[in-house]
Amino acid sequence: MAEPITDSLNDIKKEFLKKFIAWLDKYEKMDSNNGRFSRETHSALRQTSQAFLSVTEYCCNNLNMSYLLLGKIQTDKLESRFGQYRSMSGDQYHISIRQLYETENKLRISRELKLISHTSGSFDIDLFDNCDQDENSVEIIDDFFQDIEVSNSDIDKVADSLPVITYLAGYCSHSAHKNVKCYKCRKKLLTDKEMDVDNFKLIKSCDRGGLLYPSEFVTNIVLHIYIVTQKLISEKYELQFLKVQNQRNLVMKLVEELLMSKDMWDFSVCSCGYTFEKVIAKIMKSATNTLLNNYCKIKNDKQKGSKTKKKRKLETLSEIKNTSSLLEKKTKTNTK
Fold first, then answer.
1. What mean pLDDT comes out for the span 6-10?
2. 173: closest CA among 203, 213, 142?
3. Taking Cα atoms as reference points, which of 336, 306, 287, 294 lies closest to residue 116?
């Protein structure tokens, strides 16, 4: 597999594959049961060998390739995908068709909503991975970020992503909903399932009775967080944003001020004595964590990679230095 297979009719690798497949066919018809492959192993071996031969012929005849490196054909991506299916299905090894469809649907939803970093490019948002770690520090907004606003044109630009943003808002409502006991407070988070709204089409397609339909107020909060986060990682603000100690709190503070300026903030106190601001804070934390999760991972991976690269370079330089000093010593010894 280390050497390429060519389009030559006399290529010994092609001949080997053909003979090997013929041998596997004869092997299958043998009566002896001693030292035999299992049915699964034999089937996988024959299918793989036949696939290598078919792929080679197709690439040479249809794509005009003169050679092919079969060692490059791997199932790593497929195995990784099935690993995600199993992980999202309760870490079960054998998953059902229904679980496969449901997890695939979730993974595709995550790809629909993207953020674009000026330095790292486009990246997916993991809608199902956020940390609810509570940090009470208040972020003071630097004057540099004071001009960030959310206009109607900004909202129009993300109109195609609204069903996914609404889906994320439903997830955030669920995170806040489970900690709120009061019926009136809960009612502010949700809306009627029977409403025929375009933004609910994604939730309806995934719903088997357990998904929550967020209120317009919650959807607006998540929408503003998404737009503000995208602006903060744009060319104008990203380098300064990376210097901020608590990036999540900065996003939340900016969105809070924007919603207040538009009279969209809720200062009401419920009859149960619970201020709705606390509920809003839970929604904002959940949404911001979700949006910043993969961004932080990418930045951390880059930082670790650069440190490893520098360390490797230093080790290489020290090895060269040690080698050269040894050579000098040997030269001096030989001269004497």
1. 83
2. 213
3. 294
In this structure, the chain runs to a length of 336
Binning the chain into helix, strand and coil, the percentages to the nearest 5 are 65, 5, 30
Q: How far apart are CA 177 and CA 234, in angstroms?
A: 33
Residue pair 159/188 in contact (Cβ under 8 Å)? The answer is no
Share of the chain above pLDDT 90, in %: 10
Question: Residue 114: which H helix or E strand, with range?
Answer: strand 114-117
Q: Which spans in 243-275 are helix H?
A: 247-261
Q: CA-CA distance, 194 to 134, in Å (whole number)?
A: 35
Angstrom CA distances, 314 to 304, 306, 321, 326, stand at: 15, 12, 10, 18
Cα–Cα distance measured from residue 57 to residue 71, given in angstroms and rounded to the nearest whole number: 16
The CA distance from 206 to 196, in Å, is: 15
Is residue 86 very low, low, confident or very high in pLDDT (cuts 50, 70, 90)? confident
Q: What is the pTM of this model?
A: 0.60
DSSP, res 210: -
Rounded distance, CA 157 to CA 262, Å?
Answer: 19
Dist CA 169 CA 176 (whole Å):
11
Average pLDDT over residues 1-29: 86
